[in-house]
TrEMBL record:
Family recorded in the similarity comment: Belongs to the LysR transcriptional regulatory family.
Top-level taxon of origin: Bacteria
Organism lineage string: Bacteria, Pseudomonadati, Pseudomonadota, Gammaproteobacteria, Oceanospirillales
SUPFAM superfamilies listed in its UniProt record: Periplasmic binding protein-like II, Winged helix' DNA-binding domain
Gene Ontology terms for molecular function: DNA-binding transcription factor activity; transcription cis-regulatory region binding
Domain HTH lysR-type: 11-68
Keywords for this protein: DNA-binding, Transcription, Transcription regulation
The protein's name: LysR family transcriptional regulator
Secretion signal, residue range per the UniProt entry: none
Pfam families the record matches: HTH_1, LysR_substrate
Amino acid sequence: MKPLIINGEFMNLRDLDCFVAVAETGSVVAASRRLNRVQSGISVRLRQLEQDLGQPLFDRRGRGLTLNSAGERFLDAARDLLQRAEQARALLRDPHPAGQFRLGSMESTIAARLPALLSRFHADYPAVQLELVSQPSWTTLRAVERGELDAAFVSADAVSDQLSRQPVFREELVLVSARDHRPVKKPADLGDTPLLVFAPDCAYRARLERWAQQDGGAPRRRIELHSYHVMLSCAAAGTGVGLVPQSVLDVFADRDRLALHRLPRAIARDDTCLVWHPARCGANLAALQAVIGAPLS
């Protein structure tokens, strides 16, 4: 990889690749597995990058590495540089977006985020035959790993050492119930109200179950559903409570029938990420990234 010049300093893309891998996996050992490189080489590249930047990017405690404040600020810029470099390489390999493009996504993203984006994608790249598959995050992630999907939108909770990722949308998750349900600020406020959930591979289900068990009580009864429309209708009818992105509520016609309960930030804040296998990039993926534009909207 060629070096870049930033603020008068040379910066190698391989150094950035190692930095992002360590930041996302939490260790040099895990980063070496993701990148298929020796640990000593990754450590050398981290030290070289910090020397080029003139400041440390990690707090080092024993063998552990944790991003410091400078590293956290630099991470988004490093991801952006790597993404742009990959887009350029993809366009050189296959400069004309065309043919089948298999895209996976959570249902919530399809309902609330993708209509306008995909309309623009179809208008700009009519030769691409887009196949959209709706699945929970972990199911979709494994499909991308196996090559069954070219890319996917998943919750940031779904992590894979094999895949590259780009944060795209920031979601605020809210607990929804019938309007006459008492206010919910802690799990005990749920009483014996069932949880309305999707399949076990759903990242939002895992968040809701984790929060609901914080009081140490018995496992709560779950009602497994298959669409947000059904979940919201059941919540409005008093059947149970569900965890739903605010963006989905914004397009739900009967949201006035629901009560919204704000949860702690650790549960409520999530990023939707675009994931893909770095060995299977192409012009179609680069075209989608170009349409997405600025991340975290």
